[in-house]
Amino acid sequence: MDSASAARVRQRHHVQVHGDGPTLVYAHGFGCSQGMWDGVTPYFAATHRQVLFDYAGAGRADPMAFDPRRHAQLEGYAEDLVDVVRAVAPPEGVVLVAHSVSCSIGMIAARREPALFRDLILIGPNPCFINHPPDYVGGFERRDLAGLLDLMERNFLGWSSTLAPIVAGEGGAGGVATRLEASFCSTDPVAARIFAAATFYADNRADVAHVTTPALILQHRHDALAPLAVGRWLQAHLPDARLEVLDVAGHCGHMSHPALVAEAMRRRFGG
Predict the structure, then answer these.
(1) Is the whole-model pTM more than 0.90?
(2) Exactly one of 100, 102, 104, 160 is catalytic; which is it?
(3) How far apart are CA 217 and CA 264, in angstroms?
(4) Residues spanned by the domain of 187
């Protein structure tokens, strides 16, 4: 990517680059922004080059970057992620640190452009949120997701206050539920509804077997959005993956227990 194109990508996705060393690219989850990583990044400030960005429709990304048609599928977000990585990537590629739906987005991107990614750290991944018994427990029945998205359409603020404690888990450690609710409420409702449908109705299980990039799966022990069974399924189906279980209740260990996430990452890096 030429310098002018890279500059446009950096502006479009509010890309922030800090430090020197091996490159970590952090990809946030649905309804969130790059600020959600602020508990983890201090652990690597002295050792790594850290890249943060906002997806179209989130955080401080250019509002004009959101395309209702392109971003109705996770592939549209994967294209954005590839653009960001190309705009900042060193020749040896990057380590992608992804949360929730960004794990699926990252696997799509790594399947398409494996040379850009040398490692995947997947926090709370779930390639399909819908249950497909008896072989797959995604956590939700389709009718439950339809009800949640219907509430989102009718009462966006009510939906935000309903979903935030579910995502945060028991107790919402460290004010996570409050912070999530504020983030959900600050997101453009139109973009949020489109991203929500793309997230919760996606089924990317077929992509998993084709992802050759090594992966560390960090699954939360008690997580309503990504049951532990999903982590075990991914370990069995990703060609090169290792599963670690975080003793965490909730879906956002990087926010509620950043030290645990950082420790797992350091073990992965051998430091």
Answers:
(1) yes
(2) 100
(3) 10
(4) 3-269
